[in-house]
Amino acid sequence: MFQGNIMSETIDFIYKKEFWYVSAFVNEKTINGALKAKEIEALVQTLLSSITVEDLKRIRDARAEVIKEEVVEMCKNASITCSWVPYIADFPYQDENTEREYNTLGYFQFEMEYYKDLPERKQEITPVMIQQIPILVRDKLADYERREENKYLNLDNESPIYVFVASNKSVPEDVQWSQDNIEKYKQTLGNWIEIYSGAWSDYNEALYDMRIRNNLSNRLSELHFIRRNSGFVYMAEENYTNFFDSYMRKFVLEPTARIRSILYAVMSINHSLDLLFTKLSSPYGLIDIDVIEKKLNNLRLLRGVVQTNMSIIYDELDHNLRQHYTAVLRHLIREFQLDNIIDRIGNKFEVIYNAMSELYQKKNAEGEKKTQRGVTLLNILFGIGIIATLSDHIIQAETAVAGTYSPNYLDMTINIIVSGIIAVVFIYTASIILQGRKDAKKASATFTVDAVIVDGKGNIILQKRANPPFKGFYAIPGTFIKEGENHAAAIERLVKEEVGGIKIRRDKKIGVFDKKGRDPRGNVITTAYKCTVISDLDKNIAELIPLAKVKELTLAFDHKKILENAGLI
After folding, report:
1. What distance, in Å, lies between the first and last C-alpha atoms of the chain?
2. Residue 30 φ then ψ, to 5°
3. For the whole model, what pTM was predicted?
4. Which DSSP helix (H) or strand (E) runs through 93?
5. Whether the Cβ atoms of residue 491 and residue 569 lie closer than 8 Å to each other
6. Which of 178, 274, 319, 465 sits a CA distance of 20 to 30 A from 126?
7. Contact present, 525 and 445 (Cβ < 8 Å)
8. Pairing between β-strand 101-114 and β-strand 222-226 as defined by DSSP bridges
9. DSSP state for residue 555 in the 8-state scheme
């Protein structure tokens, strides 16, 4: 075999099994991780047993059709187990996208084996066949996570499923894995190391040179490679039998899963900081400084938890005498760039605190201005002698009650007038305060309209949100109301810009939704209208979903409540 300037000598690794890892946050007050693992196991098993050639459209290879058939056959002969591994308890993470709270960081561990009962067929399995299935499974897990009953399960669906492939045989056998032989067989070896990259014929030698760096094994009979999204372990059959479960799992696979879950945690913290900064610069005025400060304190706590666990790892690096294990840990920290990401998070905290400081100064300046207005009003009252006069008449009235002074009609009249003035002043002052509070609440609120659009055939138009909050969740089409715009004009603009310019009939107002906390962005007050489609629908822009299916979905914000109020679900 000769591809580009790759050497022609090759080696075949015989597949043994795989280990998959999916990082996750779980709220263990409401979710039982072990039970969820069994649900996920059954879900994936069902998916694999039902995969067809049509499902495998992601494969791009000269032998595509043949490979598709082989992959389908692999799936029908797949054995899988899934377990939940809690890593850091007391990890109070709040997802800034959905405002949902979790308390445990961990990962789901899958043991996957194709042709477990037909070992002679394992030699047919190639890396390009392996890479297709985790992609399909990740998509299925994303749908699973969106179910209402899984709202307190947060899976890492942004990253690929981490795939560790193990091999315990090779042809030719008993190769001594010196650096020369690694170089000699780098094309085949490189394709097993980088599972998700495929095996294109025009990959150059420099790429394979990069892939085969950092063999972490300290034995000539083994190969240990760990990359950002996949890893490869080859152990001669005797070594595999004697040491894989007792050593390799504990000192290579499990550290990879743990550190990757830390990576997921720091990336989630990083993402939350980005969203908080976006809120601070929101053009809609959706800023509640006290809420943002509370969230920042929580994120700072989580950063401390991460750093504490990293300190444990660093302590192992300093004191563990097992050189191979410490080499694996150092490599994982470099490969996942944890130190750099944690430093970036520290810088973001500083930027947000500076922005918060400016907002606090502005808030304090406004408070001082209001206080000064009150002082000015008191000075005016004292200046015209009202308070002094009121005091004199009150004293006279009290003296009269005590029997030491007999008021004349003029004094009584003055007392009545003064009392009336006091009442008017207090009523006027109270009205100003109440109106001020009302104006402040109104000024801090942002107004939107939502269009609940149905087709009269049991379907509704929903959109998958492209941006936080509730990124990736289905939502009722909605828009912020522009200055000077009424509800009818806002809905007309919404339909034109977001729903493909269809024609609708606005049937009725469903209601106003202003419950505190309904929108993670702040005080958002929404007026919802029920509408009906009266023209053809552009399915490339808007999606019609059966209302019966909507009942099973977790919708963004309080949109399920809106549909309930509309009598649709």
Report:
1. 62
2. -120, -15
3. 0.75
4. strand 78-94
5. no
6. 178
7. yes
8. unpaired
9. B
Q: Is 259 buried (19+), middle (13-18) or exposed (0-12) by CB count in 10 A?
A: buried
Give the C-alpha separation, 145 to 155, whole Å.
Answer: 7
Cis amide prior to 172 (ω within 30 degrees): yes
Task: Tell me the per-residue pLDDT of 161-170, one tens digit each, with 9 for 90 and over.
Answer: 999 999 999 9
What percent of the chain lies above the pLDDT cut of 70?
A: 78
Q: Which residues make Cβ contacts (< 8 Å) with residue 399, sequence separation at least 6?
A: 405
**CA distances (Å), origin 321, targets 215, 256, 315, 318, 324:** 20, 19, 12, 8, 9
Written as six digits, the tokens of 274 are 């980005």
Token representation of residue 491: 């809905």
Between CA 396 and CA 400, with CA 398 as vertex, the angle to 5 degrees is 70
What is the C-alpha to C-alpha distance for residues 563 and 569, in angstroms, rounded to an integer?
Answer: 6
Look at residues 244, 192, 202, 191 and name the one whose alpha carbon lies nearest to residue 222. 244
State the Cα torsion 268-269-270-274 to the nearest 10°. 100
Specify the CATH superfamily of domain 446-565.
Nucleoside Triphosphate Pyrophosphohydrolase (3.90.79.10)
Structure tokens at 313: 């790892």
Rounded Cα distance between 470 and 350, Å, is 26
DSSP string of 456-483, one letter each residue? SSSEEEEEE-SSSSSTTSEE--EEEPPT
Report whether the peptide linkage leading into residue 255 is cis, meaning its omega lies within 30 degrees of zero.
no
Rg of the chain, C-alpha, whole Å: 33
Q: Answer for the pair 301, 377: CB distance below 8 angstroms, yes or no.
A: no
Nearest-angstrom CA–CA distance, 191 and 201: 11
d(CA 140, CA 40): 10
- Cα–Cα distance between 17 and 110 in angstroms, integer? 11
Where helices occur in 60-212 by DSSP H, the ranges are 64-76, 127-130, 132-145, 179-184, 186-193, 205-211
Grouping H, G, I as helix, E, B as strand and the rest as coil, residue 513 is strand
Query: Of 26, 43, 34, which is closest to residue 83 (Cα–Cα)?
Result: 34
